[in-house]
Protein 1
Amino acid sequence: MKRLLLLVILMLVIPAAAYAQSDVDVDYCDSSNPDKEQVIEACTALLELEPRNTNAYFTRAFVEAELGRYEDSIIDYSKVLFFTPRDSLAFNNRGYSFYRLENFLAAIRDYTAALDLDSTYAQARINRGYAYWANEQPELALADAEYLIATDQNAADGYYLRASLAQEAGDYLAAIEDYDRAIEIDPDWSSLYLGRGFAHWSLGDFATAAPDYYMWMELEASQVERLTASIAAEPFTLTMDGTTRFVLPIRVNAGDRLTIRAEALADTLDPALVLLDPSGTPILSDDDGGGGIAGLDAVIDGFRVSEDGLYRVVIGFAGGGDIGDVEVSVILQR
């Protein structure tokens, strides 16, 4: 199952200041400006006036990375480092752009350079750990995670990385222990619930996984689309955008058998299912049990209902791609 690695660039806010006259208001060269194209235009104008202004290069590089223009970002961070070669933040952020271009060796070099300048730079260390992991060097990734945990017992990133590495190695119990600790530290981090849910699911504990998948969906997909029960009379298609979870009510009687299947219609989607009982408690879930195009379809197969009432099926995505169509079918055997 694919996992999203969420790397964080430390925010930099450049204070506004007055500069020489220009056709463009260079005061907009400020990373807090929501109009990112305007930021780039203003920084470019400022650099024409002050070609050694490292703040302008840094701000433009930061915004270029936000816009996904990683090659341009690398060029501008390199300018910063030409003028200020001991800027650990510039090394870290250029490493992020290399990472996003999947040039993991270059990313590792930059994160290492940042750490050589500041061994306490936790963000550079966790970023290097992710880069080592992506570069298929799990032992080195684990060493960075262990270092973070040893130096800061509240380093949720360190526990998350160590949990992810354990999970990839098939040690789901160790992964769950680290996810538990990370959730204690940062209970609003959605990826922790997805990771722990998948670990429980991998152990075949679909009931214990259910609350984690449901929490993941609540945190990650804040918009709710409530479906009508009649839609389930025949298979139907939902378009998932990564921000919406769908809730389908199903009225059942004790002893009924319920089967729900969510089939991705392209390999870019990873659906998940959570079943809520009449009280709204998550009681069952599935992630990748339904096979499908990429082996990522979800299915709850022949679940025997224990009590009469209105159950709800929550349909969301599980991190391995979040845009595309999914076909949902419901079979109720009385």
Note: The beta strands are 223-226, 236-240, 244-252, 257-264, 269-276, 282-286, 298-304, 309-322, 324-333.
Protein 2
Amino acid sequence: MDEQVVISTQNLVKQFQVKDGAVTAIDGVTLQVRRGETYGLIGPDGAGKTTTTRVILGLLTRTSGQSSILGHDSMRDTYRIRERVGYIAQQFALPGDLTVMENVRFFARVQGVSSAEQRRRIPDLLEFAGLSGFTDRLASRLSGGMKKKLALACSLVHEPQVVLLDEPTLGVDPVSRREFWNLLGDLRRERGTTIFVCTPYMDEAERCNWVGLMYEGRLIAHDSPGKIKQMVPGRLLEFKPSDFVPAWRLVPDLPGVLEVQTYGAMLHIFVDDPDRRGREIEAALAAQGITCEGMREIETRMEEAFISLIRKQSAGASDAA
């Protein structure tokens, strides 16, 4: 096995037994995470991200396939994995009646960190997380963003080589989300920590070195953020039509239009030639009494790429059926 690969799955399958049979939560997922990179497993709720993470960690048994961390099999070597890996679950439970300092010391003891090592590590760790001024504050009285930082500090107290985070910024305000991701960036750059993070937020994928797009238990794309966005053909026009529904119905049939997506009151149109097709779209809509406000070309984001790839996946499945 390549020593640079620290997380690996091969044809991973996880099924849950239900009353009427079995539900497949992970359907043949193969991925690799290399040492020192930030890998984002991106997808909507129910895509299978959390289940994949828990199987990799050995918290759930796999139905078939392979999964490992740092060369240790997820099913056979769970104790070795936990010694070397930090984990923040989606609902990370911090004892609310303990202070910030007491929480970090509690998790240090759970991980078997000696008192001498705690004295060395904890001050630096709290400084890193921006919590040095809050050591005596009860965890229950922290803001949502500070609780996430404390959870990160607790997961790092045993100095893991790999950190897995399951939707760590869910329900956190945008400023706190940005601060948390800045901490993850510092963690990777300063300590060389490998980071595996699940998130439903497409914009967070842009902060990762490598991204896996997951949908209905399958990995539908697996590459760098830039390469994934290049998988969508054409260039992207954005505008706000004065009459949304008629415009939305008319535009897909115009020449050179490759795909149409909606974004609030805006239409996002993938075209082969933005200058030419922009003029033609404006003319076609004007003939129907519809104006185009703010017509411009924009960069394709991960969100548009994900929607496009899901559509292709669904169309392929329909054709196969």
Note: The domain at 233-299 is CATH 3.30.70.100 (Alpha-Beta Plaits).
Protein 3
Amino acid sequence: MTHGLAERVADRSFATMKPLDVAILCSVFLAGFAGTAAPGEMKMALDSTTDPRLFAVRFARYGYNPMKTISIDPKGGVRFQLPAATPAVQETMLYSFFALAGDFEIVAGYEWTNVTSPREGHGVRCGFEVVVEGDPTPASMTIERGQWPEAKRDGYLVYRGTLNAEKKRMSNEEYFEPAKARKGKLAMRREKDEIVCLAANSPKEELRELCRLPFTERTIRKIRLFVDQGGSPTTLDIKFPEFCVRAEEITGGIPRRDQPFGWGRWLMWGGFAVVGTVLFILYRREKRAEREGG
């Protein structure tokens, strides 16, 4: 029976197809649809190297005179330039208009084009942060390349952020590794409820794992790509020549997993039930017709 179905489909002679054949085709289609939604598969992507307008369209600017200090490269990438006389601001950044659901991976290339070592303040740095908002507790994870005046530290830093009872942001350092690289890559990968932080000391070097930290499976509401003078009158010129995000779901609205009713999933399984019932009825009818005809 399936051999005859394949021949009729190949010949596009749908008029000759039996009702049972049509039902079988529907079940095959639904099975294929279900297979495309495998959990953990990062099937959506945004990449500044293939979409040069990524930073201009999907991010907003914030910080010191952002329309002048942040410039978008027409070929993709972004550049932050802060003069030494910049008044103290917390950070100058781009933050995303989109959310990430499920497992994800973020990779950002960086270049310290011209950065003066700080003599005061809390460190000159660049990197990115992922932010979870709402109940039960807002949280964030940050990876950065920086230079800090205390003990003349220079390298990669990973820290987690939460809000305390007074709704003040608290950051806890989780990992530090010395590094002198002027060009490299920073990366984060979420695997269920764990964040893997990675780095590379050159653009061509393979990413290597720095640390793994427990996090949350909740939706990432914002990605913040930032630079910070750390309260020091320090010249800062930093580029992010590439930025890539891969995730199970990237959306400007509410991810499917956060919607109160998973209509797509219910419709899919409802379709399986209907097609299964129709298959059984048509199979019985076809067998009865074969017996009566024989």
Note: Residues 263-293 form the longest helix (31 residues).
